TrEMBL record:
Domain Chorismate-utilising enzyme C-terminal: 158-405
Family: Belongs to the isochorismate synthase family.
Catalysed transformations (reactions): chorismate = isochorismate
Pfam families linked: Chorismate_bind
InterPro entries: ADC_synthase, Chorismate_C, IsoChor_synthase
Keyword Isomerase: yes
Name the record gives this protein: isochorismate synthase
Alphabetical keyword list: Isomerase
Organism superkingdom: Bacteria
Top EC category: isomerase
One Gene Ontology term of the molecular function aspect: isochorismate synthase activity
SUPFAM superfamilies cross-referenced by the UniProt entry: ADC synthase
PANTHER family: ISOCHORISMATE SYNTHASE ENTC
Length: 415
């Protein structure tokens, strides 16, 4: 575990802001874009005053302690808005596996947020430095990446099909019930990739998803892992997927009636409920899922709600550490599924399928699962997609499903 703590105490000031346009339009560019936005609401940030980096099985607990120390050490904290997301915040992105490096918390220098019809600006600065962001500066033009050339990643589609077939064989032999397998794809651009271009494209196509950017990982996830506001905890579980067939059939009805997808969804909901239950006082789980329809795919969705015990209120990162990885991105039983993933997937997922979002100063915030995303580095984007595999999965169908999920980022990159 490597921790780079803030070298000095911080001051925080949050003020109301008149904001007429989209939040994403305030990102200046070339300043380490940070984002957690859904529709017209959320947070964007830029600059950096403190950073945590870590790995290992204790990364969530270490990050929680680090963030608590930053909040406890605030030299001055003025909040004239007092809404979820105001005051001191850190943007967060964690790796899927314990041994993968790259988990990070970033405390930005400037945050712009909006909730309902109220907007604000938060400035965070070392205690011995003045506040400088008295007004938003004009952003630089958003740059398209130009022509894209695609190349195989570590696990191309044909190797992914082989891994799926092997997972199906293991499940039919009774070794486990479900595993989520992923593969990757590389996109090379003519010019350095602008995270804002991808964010704008994803937000425009998927306004009901959470568009995110943290330390070069950019995407739009439909899956809210956990939200903690006060004593209330909420989660949206997605598992079970179909995509439009072009035949005019009712995809939602077919998905809802699919025994395979309903079984996959039940695994994911049961997994989340089992890990949350010891940490909360009340837990409400829907008896049946709903259908969430996106432009490229449809998912079975269940919104789970819990109330914390006021005598022992767990922080958001404590809860995240308990529930990750859920069956929705790992499998069932989760220890067996993650072991199988490590054995046959052939991919270092990095922060793909890991928790991503933001933390506030009260131990709350929102974290989704990093899906429909790409890791940007210079002129290269590394795209990811994965599918839940059960005993009656068809490898060819799973390859097509992964391609449909990856299409979301490809379309946004291409403009």
């Amino acid at each position: 575990m490597t921790v780079a703590p803030a070298t000095t105490a911080l001051r925080v000031r949050t003020r109301p802001l008149r904001l007429d346009g989209p939040l994403l339009d305030t990102l200046p560019g070339d300043s380490g874009e940070l984002c957690w936005v859904r529709g017209d609401e959320g947070l964007v940030g830029w600059g950096e005053v403190a950073r945590f980096t870590g790995s290992g099985p204790d990364r969530f607990a270490e990050a929680d302690r680090w963030w608590s120390s930053v909040v406890d050490g605030l030299d001055d904290h003025t909040d004239d808005v007092r809404l979820p997301g105001t005051g001191a915040v850190a943007f967060a992105s964690f790796t899927f596996t314990d041994d993968s490096p790259g988990s990070v918390l970033v405390v930005p220098r400037v945050v712009v947020g909006r909730r309902g019809n109220r907007a604000w600006i938060t400035e965070i600065t070392p205690a011995d430095a003045p506040f400088a962001a008295t007004a938003l500066r004009p952003p630089s033009p958003v740059r398209p990446g130009g022509r894209l050339r695609y190349a195989d990643g570590d696990v191309p589609a044909h190797r992914y099909r082989v891994a799926v077939a092997e997972a199906v064989r293991r499940m039919r032999a009774g070794e486990l019930a479900k595993a989520v397998l992923a593969h990757d794809l590389l996109a090379h651009a003519d010019a350095p990739l602008d995270a804002r271009f991808l964010l704008h494209g994803l937000a425009r196509r998927y306004p009901t998803c959470w568009s995110f950017a943290v330390d070069g990982l950019v995407g739009a996830t439909p899956e809210l892992l956990l939200r903690r506001a006060g004593q209330i905890v909420e989660s949206r579980v997605l598992a079970g997927t179909m995509w439009p067939s072009g035949s005019g059939d009712d995809v939602g009805a077919a998905l809802y009636g699919s025994a395979k997808d309903r079984r996959e969804h039940a695994y994911a909901v049961d997994s989340l409920a089992a890990t949350l239950r010891p940490l909360v006082a009340e837990l409400t789980v829907p008896e049946t899922p709903a259908v969430l329809t996106l432009p490229n795919v449809s998912h079975l969705a269940s919104d789970v709600r819990a109330r914390l015990d006021p005598a022992r209120p767990a922080s958001l990162l404590t809860l995240i550490g308990a529930v990750h990885p859920t069956a929705a991105v790992g499998g069932t039983p989760t220890p067996d599924a993650t072991a199988l993933i490590s054995e046959i997937e052939g991919l270092d997922r990095g922060r793909y399928a890991g928790p991503v979002g933001y933390l506030d100063a009260d131990g709350g915030g929102e974290m989704g699962i990093a899906l429909r995303c790409a890791e940007l580095q210079g002129r290269t984007a590394r795209l990811f997609a994965g599918c839940g595999i059960v005993a009656d999965s068809d490898p060819d169908a799973e390859v097509r499903e992964a391609a449909a999920k990856m299409r979301a980022v490809r379309d946004a990159l291409e403009g």
